[in-house]
Specification:
By secondary structure, the protein is an alpha/beta fold. It is built from 15 helices and 12 strands. The strands form 3 sheets. A 7-stranded mixed beta sheet has the order 2-8-7-6-5-3-4, sandwiched between helices. Helix 8 (195-208) links the parallel strand 5 (177-183) and strand 6 (211-215).
Length: 408
Amino acid sequence: MTHPNLSQLHPYPFEKLNKIKSELTPPEHLSHISLSIGEPKHKPPQFVLDELTNNIQQVSSYPTTKGTEALRQAISEWATQRFFLAKNSLSADKHILPVNGTREALFAFTQAVINPNESYSQSLNKRPLVISPNPFYQIYEGASILAGAELKLLNCLEQNNYLPDFNEVTDAEWQRCQLLFLCSPGNPTGQLLSSKQYQELITLADRHNFVIASDECYSELYREEGNPPVGLLQACAEMGRNNYARCVVFHSLSKRSNLPGLRSGFVAGDQELIQQFLLYHTYHGCAMSVPTQLASITAWQDEQHVIENRHQYREKYRLFKETLDGVWDIQQPPASFYLWAKTPIDDVLFMQKLFSEQHITVLPGRFLSRDNNGVNPGENHVRMALVASLEECKEAALRLKTFIQSLK
């Protein structure tokens, strides 16, 4: 026997994509350019790799689930400076837990937080409610389903600047809500929540007693140097809420430092939630290896490589914009490395024709979203991840220009 809710899980977006591509024949004379997967391709920092290899012998020791004090302290110092937190308010001992990437942590945290026996939901004979943006990172959906919760989706539409409209949630739904997923910068939209919006949601969480899980793994890739995105803990600090009650954030080195294979990130916030998640994680068996922890410390302590990383993405956005100006209306978002672009034809057909004619892979928007209230907010959009090299992105922009012109 298996978990009864496993059958409710949707295929992952890239499973759908690969199935369609397997039936297509791309032009052999053109090299393949992938813009579909958000996997950074910039060179990882050499000093991080050196730290990893120089300490590889420490794989002979079992790591603790809580991680080393040195790593948690490095994370605390980084987050405190980055998000303008009150000094010593984000305790390395009480408020931080290193994790093996945010994907695993988002899923596990949901299992630890959702209470299927919560009295309010039971009195209504309903399942606990999780609220999520739509489109979304599919882990939010899968984690909610396997935790036995109902998922309410908030469409991120152009008329709302591709942000969720939280006014769509009724008081009764807020009362049923146990977990609210936020993603800012958004995947796939790259749009940002403001401090005011965060604070309004924190007030709602207090009133209705739910947890806010803010996925901020793209927070260090932003358009304007010196104007970084606001984070949930920063909004807490601006409210004088230095205990971060009901608020938890998820961060990673994958995008910030071009280290997706290192599987290194952290969860931070509400002390009680972090300590309960530590208990869950101890049984879950997800301790980070000591060499990974030592390498991670060096990454969190350095900002120069992150500045250079942002510069490379800005160059690629500029190149796309200049090449496609007047041909395809694409807009650089405030943050992330994605383009969330409207398509002149059906998004799946767009992907098929682009691959078949120009050997470029993009991800149809509907693969990242669900039909909701008669609308699929990903329909007639594609997500393009500008992760390839500058030369490949230049070539991709030229091919896209040719392709869009052929559609017209």
